[in-house]
Amino acid sequence: MSKSNDSISKTLTVALILCLVCAVIVSVSAVALKPLQVANQELDRRSNILIAAGLITAKEATRDRVTAEFAKIQIKVVDLRTGEFTNQVKAEDYDQVRASKDPAQSFALKQAALGVNRLENYGLVYLVGNEANPDRIIIPVRGPGLWSTLYGFLALEGDGNTIAGMGFYDHGETPGLGGEVDNPKWKAQWPGKKTYGDKTMQPLLGLSKKPDGVHEVDTLSGATLTARGVTNLLQFWVSEQAYGTFLAKFRQGGA
After folding, report:
1. Is the pTM of this model over 0.85?
2. In whole angstroms, how far apart are CA 125 and each of 20, 80, 88?
3. What is d(CA 205, CA 36) in angstroms, rounded to the nearest whole number?
4. What would you report as the CA-atom Rg of the chain, rounded to the nearest whole angstrom?
5. Phi/psi zone of residue 98: left (φ > 0), alpha (ψ -120 to 50 degrees), beta?
6. What is the 3-state secondary structure (H, E, C) of 47-108?
7. What's the Cα-to-Cα distance from 112 to each of 5, 82, 242, rounded to whole Å?
8. Is the separation of the CB atoms in 168 and 184 below 8 Å?
9. How far is the C-alpha of 218 from the C-alpha of 183, rounded, in Å?
10. How many helices (H) and strands (E) does the chain have?
């Protein structure tokens, strides 16, 4: 009986040691790989900004090319309540999505949009060229689709009105339906479209079964709710509740 107990004890001891060794290996690996993971995430973010702006294609998104092109971009922070540039937070440290969930870093919307009652105080903008007269203005956009929240970037020409490009880098929409937001042919419809009307800052961009050719692109076939979500989120982020006041300043000749 003692031999049997001794055998069980040894087995449990060996198993415990193996578990401890594996835990240590996993922990060390996680710590060692963390900087690489962070670097890859940043590379992916920069790639998506450049692709949305039409500055590179997905095939050109090598580390060297992305690094070189992104060096031409200025990252600024805008107070979404006033539309003015601000130095209240550092662009390189600011997490806009996280701030939106913190009451101390957000404000109540005048009118609830996208099912959200509050918006972060500050928003990031990416400028290509001169700060006062940029060639491109890139803003982050996000909002609910059918199954997920879509995260992306909208790029405008320096007039603050003409779309240069648009793309989503993270979503969980249905492949072949709402997931067609990733289709290069669909995204190629956006450049040249106008965000607002000629004399107003009322957002008119969006998706339609019968696009007007000026502000709208073809809808996503079989994905009505995703299409509606894309229209709503784009119109919200260029509205006066979000980046609209900031963009209006460019349309008037400078921020």
Report:
1. no
2. 47, 11, 14
3. 38
4. 23
5. alpha
6. HHHHHHCCCCCHHHCCHHHHHHHHCCEEEEEEECCCCEECCCCCHHHCCHHHHHCCHHHEEE
7. 67, 18, 12
8. no
9. 12
10. 6, 10
Tens place of pLDDT for every residue, the chain, 255 residues? 455 556 777 777 777 788 777 777 777 665 665 566 667 778 888 898 999 888 898 889 899 999 999 998 999 999 999 999 999 999 999 999 999 999 999 998 877 777 778 899 999 999 998 888 899 999 999 999 999 999 999 999 999 999 999 999 999 999 989 999 999 999 999 999 999 988 788 999 999 999 998 999 999 988 999 999 999 999 999 999 999 999 998 876 544
The number of residues making up the chain comes to 255
Structure tokens at 78: 């805008």
Nearest CA-CA partner of 71 in 81, 83, 79, 63: 63
Rounded to whole angstroms, the Cα distance separating 184 from 202 reads 28
Structural tokens at position 59: 């095939």
Q: The tokens 């479209």 sit on which residue?
A: 193
How crowded is the C-beta side of 227, counted as CA atoms within 13 Å? 17
